[in-house]
Amino acid sequence: MPYLPHVQFLTETIRLGLSNLRRHALRSILTCLGIILGVAAVIVVVAIGEGNKQAALRDIAALGARNIIVRSSKPPDVASTTQARTFLSRYGLLYEDARRLEAGLDGLVIVPLKAVGSEISRGAFRTTAQCFGTVSELAMVANLQAQPGGRYLSDQDIATHAPVAVLGDEIARQMFPARDALGQDFRIDQQVFRVVGVLQPQGLSGGAGSALVGRDLNRDIHVPMTTAERQFGDIVQRRSSGSFSAEEVQLSEVYITAPSTESVGEVAARVERVIESAHPGMTDVQIVVPWELLENARRAMVVWNIMLVSIAAISLLVGGIGIMNIMLASVTERTREIGIRRALGATRRHIVLQFLVETGSLSAVGGVIGILLGIGVAFGLGQLVELLRSFAFFRGAFGRVSLEPVITIWSIVVSFGVAAAVGLVFGTYPAVIASRKDPVVALRHT
Fold first, then answer.
1. What angle do the packed helices 348-389 and 33-61 form, to 10 degrees?
2. What are the residues whose beta carbons fall under 8 Å from the beta carbon of 157, sequence distance 6 or more?
3. β-bridge mates for residue 165, sequence order
4. What local confidence, expressed as pLDDT, does residue 387 receive?
5. What's the gap between Cα 324 and its chain centre?
6. Phi/psi of residue 165, each to 5°?
7. Sheet (strand 119-122) strand order
8. What pLDDT score does 41 carry?
9. Averaged pLDDT in 10-residue chunks for the chain of 446 residues
10. Are 346 and 9 in contact, with CB atoms under 8 Å apart?
11. Where are the beta strands (DSSP E) in 356-438?
């Protein structure tokens, strides 16, 4: 058994290294503290960054990866004149624009939305909400789903000018806090509507998708387009603080669905040409392409993750320097021990191996503790934010903050591998210094 002496030597070296670490337990813990914090920092920042990335991508994708959104946008010169006590502004998409799009984009799904009304009321309850006339296809193109028991707008509702409405989740809970909203009546301005459905909660609330659509979709109210045209016309009136303003906007948004994600860019270019022909300069119209924003968000998140990991890697570097400093001090402290081992036949290789076992053990143990600490802190931060949000004092600061940490396998593997490598690299120099000690000089050391 020629390999038995080598196995015994390796086993004895590992035993001596671990025994020395146990003998100075507090020093060992403090030595690997930098590694622990470094590994934990990498895992925490990657988990939070990955969670935020997936939430942002989910919000943007919820708009429909194949959709192009053409939106009416108030021109700056119009916005600046709304200080007047009474003002009627005309801008945005026209019914003719929708007909042009249908003619120029033959075969594509085109869904219009028309803003109507402003005040929502039921009994003593009054608030402002976002009411839109639309068609049944919006549920498909915008990924909208009704809660169990209800439904979305149907083609029959459109054909019969039915006074029915589908509520967003948040506005439904505000308007009907103690009862089921289905079948209940409410008013948009002075027009009575009956609730036939409540939408599933939309993750766009306060997220990246909310910024794109310019509103919280959970506060939307959808009514049939034909009903909106007949009962409200094209003028939306708004009253606040004694002032009055009115906007004449025929269509607030138009959704166009491309055949595939690969053709989104081409369809968006065609849409822009059609719209620009009737709106030179496009000062009152905006085109939003969620697919392009999705790709940009992915690239931005990769750069963000690299930056976060780079910052956390500094902690690992500091931890490695700490290990080297402690091991250099240990070389001086254990000079006599090194001399005795050399006098008894230990070679330089044996001394190097013993010190590398110690530094490797410190790095490995620090890496494992750092992984557990990082996972705990990542999920703990998410729970802490939810807890703080439940207190009225913190609600203003954390009302829209949401942490959804996602632990990735690569962050654990990479951080542990880097921690082990840092320990070995920074432990090599002290090990070499120890192996070069002259046995005679070392034995004289007191």
1. 40
2. 136, 164, 196, 224, 227
3. 195
4. 75
5. 38
6. -145, 150
7. 125-128, 119-122, 185-188, 191-198, 164-167, 220-224, 130-134, 109-116, 253-257, 67-72, 285-288
8. 83
9. 52 64 72 81 83 73 77 70 55 88 85 87 86 91 88 94 93 88 91 93 56 70 93 70 68 88 85 88 84 73 75 74 75 68 72 77 84 89 75 57 77 83 78 71 60
10. no
11. none
Q: Which residues contact 226 (CB under 8 A, 6 or more apart)?
A: 133, 158, 159, 161
Are 220 and 132 contacting, i.e. CB atoms less than 8 angstroms apart? yes
- Could you tell me the strand order of the sheet in which 86-90 lies? 86-90, 243-248, 235-240
Tokens of 251: 């269509």
Predicted TM-score of the model (pTM): 0.61
Residue 367 tokens read as: 């890496």
Greatest C-alpha distance within the chain: 105
Q: Where are the domains of the chain?
A: 4-59+296-444, 67-257
Pairing state between β 220-224 and 130-134: parallel
Q: For the beta carbon of residue 201, count every other beta carbon within 10 angstroms.
A: 14
3-state secondary structure of 132: strand
- Local structure of 237: helix, strand or coil: strand
Please report the pLDDT score of residue 397 as a whole number: 54
Question: Residue 68: in which H helix or E strand, if any?
Answer: strand 67-72
Strands 119-122 and 125-128: antiparallel
Q: Give the pLDDT score at 245.
A: 65
- The predicted pLDDT at position 254 comes to 92
Residue 435 near residue 334 (C-beta atoms within 8 A): no
